[in-house]
């Protein structure tokens, strides 16, 4: 496979919306409004857009007779980044009040909880906490270090009483309020067929910074602008796992948002020079990584 000369992607590059195939549109919309706290932005026939009042963070398209496949590539989880601990505290408190299963976790440099939606898509809700320490790939290993010297494995249960101390009395009385408008998609984590091919695509072709491979953990990460990671990828569904069939639930694409048109055109040219497919739908350029995961390039 041929690759152009490496040029780093613009440091202001970020992850945009995630577009999923769903089986029951009404149930999914209700869940993301009532449980997650997103707003319905629009609905047209079998598709919807949801977010926090600005650009769409999620889009769903209903497929007839769609089903969940295992052992295929696709999305492991998408991560909704909240602006403050208070917002994460409110989200977790809402989940606990509703009795919805979730897994609050302390990753040191992020605080988070994980949960699955009604169709089995995994969601991460998180806040960045770099002041607490690091949890990163170093020398091919995942390493966690707290700034105060306390040890961590990076996957400890989150201290919920400490987190909930960020809530005001009015927060506790209004857990149903929607997510704040500063909410964004912070990162995505993908199932892929091969770590090296995926790293080549996201690092060499798209230009994301290589944050490392943990081969023993079968995982890699890339980012833009020094962020801990914008895209994670793993082979946990199996080395050389196939792409999902056309009727599969899950990922249609996620978008990579470039800061201007010139950077978009440069990246599109890089993808073309590397002989990856390109389609031009209404809102950007759609390509696919070596594992057939859809990536929409937009400005």
Describe the protein's architecture and organization.
The protein has 299 residues and is of the alpha+beta class. The chain has a single domain (14-298), classed as 2,3-Dihydroxybiphenyl 1,2-Dioxygenase, domain 1, CATH 3.10.180. It has helices at residues 25-36, 85-98, 160-164, 169-173, 195-205, 261-273; strands spanning 14-22, 39-44, 47-51, 56-62, 74-81, 103-106, 110-116, 122-128, 133-138, 141-146, 156-157, 184-191, 209-214, 219-223, 231-234, 250-257, 285-288, 294-298. The chain has a nine-stranded mixed sheet with strand order 11-6-7-8-5-12-15-14-13, with helices on one face. It has a seven-stranded mixed sheet with strand order 2-3-4-1-16-18-17. The chain has a two-stranded antiparallel sheet with strand order 9-10. Strand 17 (285-288) and strand 18 form a beta hairpin. The longest helix is centred in the N-terminal third of the chain and has 14 residues, at 85-98. It is globular, with a radius of gyration of 19 Å. It starts with 13 loop residues before the first strand and ends with a strand. The mean pLDDT is 95.
Features:
299 residues; seven-stranded mixed beta sheet; alpha+beta; 6 helices; nine-stranded mixed beta sheet; 2,3-Dihydroxybiphenyl 1,2-Dioxygenase, domain 1; 18 strands
Please write out the topology:
Layout: E1 14-22, H1 25-36, E2 39-44, E3 47-51, E4 56-62, E5 74-81, H2 85-98, E6 103-106, E7 110-116, E8 122-128, E9 133-138, E10 141-146, E11 156-157, H3 160-164, H4 169-173, E12 184-191, H5 195-205, E13 209-214, E14 219-223, E15 231-234, E16 250-257, H6 261-273, E17 285-288, E18 294-298
Parallel strand pairs: 1-4, 5-8, 12-15, 16-18
Antiparallel strand pairs: 1-16, 2-3, 3-4, 5-12, 6-7, 6-11, 7-8, 9-10, 13-14, 14-15, 17-18
